[in-house]
Amino acid sequence: MDSELSPQDKKDLDKFIKFFALKTVQVIVQARLGEKICTRSSSSPTGSDWFNLGIKDIPEVTHEAKKALAGQLPGIGRSMCVEISLKTSEGDSMELETWCLEMNEKCDKDIKVSYTVYNRLSVLLKSLLAITRVTPAYKLSRKQGHDYVILYRIYFGEVQLSGLGEGFQTVRVGVVGTPIGTVTLSCAYRTNLAFMSNRQFERSAPIMGIIVDHFVDPPCSSQRPANMGQPCNYRAPDEEDGGQFAGVQDSQEVCNTSFSTSPPSQVLHTGKEGGVVLVPAQPPQGADTHLTVEHAPNTPGSSGEDDGLSQSGEGRRDDRRSVSPSDPVESLNAFTRKVGAFVNKPNTQMTIASLDLPFAAFAPRGLDTEENDPMVHPPESPPCLSPLQGSLHSEGSEGSGPQDDFVMVDFRPAFSKDDLLPMDLGTFYREFQNPPQLASLSLHISSQSMADDLDSLPEKLAVYEKNIDEFDAFVDMLQ
Amino acid sequence: MNCRSEVLEVTVEARQVEEAMLALLHTILLHRSTGKFHYKKEGTYSIGTVGTLDIDCDFIDFTFVRVSSEELDRMIRKAVSEFKEALSNSGSDGIGQISLEFYQKKKSRWPFSDECIPWEVWSIKVNVVNLANEQERQICREKVGEKLGEKVINVVEVINRHEYLPKMPTQSEVDNVFDTSLKDVQPYLYKITYQITDCLGTSVSTTMRRLIKDTLAL
Hints:
The complex is a heterodimer. Chain A is of the alpha+beta class.
């Protein structure tokens, strides 16, 4: 058979098949990175774009593919397979699809290698680009991040489809006949995602503590068992994982002034060597969170996310730092003052009536003096005691105003947490036990305003009557 | 020669028409575009690089790949939006069909003009439905996404049969086969036409033809 093929053609064909296999792997893995891919057209041929297509080469992926091929080429009985699987944050994994590049014995002797075969392989790669966006794993891969990641594994030899579960579907991407056999590219994908629907997507957002790179290993594959596969994301080989962790710590410190309302939804990507930036097209989590100055230091951080993203993230972090109190506890301690007998914890006694922010205790105070403190100078309010107030006061409160200086030792309202912020609920109670009277309800003031109103009424009526035409026109306009 | 003809049919909501058409037309054009040819003196040529771009649809749960060429995208969008306008002006029961035809030019001697000989025609039939509530719309988003996926698989299947393609032209003939007006890619010569059927099921053009014929018959 081969004698009919010229040595040059055979050499070319082998080269085409080898690079086709490598490009196939690149297309598949890049389609499962979780981001949109974009490459530019170029009218002048660069000579390095195989099959005249702009498909970038991720070095790690090429390395894995070459390793799997081990110098061989896909041939009859020797298929190259790319297995895509999903691994959850709990460690469960599931195969989603297997892409197979196979060769069968059907030969097309008359076909021109350097021209027709090459062009048809190019068309087949375009088809692969289109089909990789259509199988169910694509949507899953676009949503990977905190709950699960997508892994890939390349192997050579016999095709293994048993991990795809029952009822898997097959889609054929295309075939190209060559003088030494027919190249076939197909995909077998799982249809039974029941495991996913029960467990994965009903979970609420994870609490702080899960570091995004927890189950993403560095590119060095020796740390990973052979059957687990590589993650479908990319980081430049020179980045240390320490960088990731440092990012987490930073964000925790900064969390004094920021509050993340949702967990990070993307595994971190950083720019790769070739200058292609595989950064997710989402704003940094910090961009969406609204800055409120006062927060507890242990809020869920945008862990590690700020690192790889643009400069603006850095600038923002610096801004936050300058605004936040450096140490909330310090500001509390600076604020001790005498409140009354039996009081041993100043932080439980503080009443900050002027601020109604959550965690207001951490507010940078410094200016509050005894003069303004309602604890020392209670507001002028009628001494009406609600039953609630009565029950809260521990001693000596009947008939006396709620702002009694010598009561309320270790005030612990029901259901308040007994840790950092016991005063939160207590503060609330205090503040709203004695709201100031509404101005309009006080008889003196209200009667005065009523009288004023009545006096001005005839004048107002005169004005309205004068402008009656205008009003009518307005009403007509509305209709 | 015989012209290969393929028909795809989709049922979408009015707001999904544009994206569904773009997805299918761009998928076809991706396969029917090459890089720019650069002819060399010896009669050989080299080919430029075609970049690709993922596009997420806003109204459909679908992502498609198109050629990285803003010029080509503009031209396709223009045609699709004309089609969409015509479809929406025809009334809510409108059924329309947009056709992408690849052709070759055959030079004729004077005084006859060049012939355009189609070698592949893709027709996409569109049924527009109106949905009553948001829940139905959400289901429609997903269903149309799945359907478009099936259509992409159909397109790929047809293309990978590797049936007739025009021969690669010499430099003097290249404009008879390819559209060389774009600066970054080179699709085969194509044209996009459309046809709107009114709710009576007859196309507007056939009605006009009938009227004229009837008039002339008198």
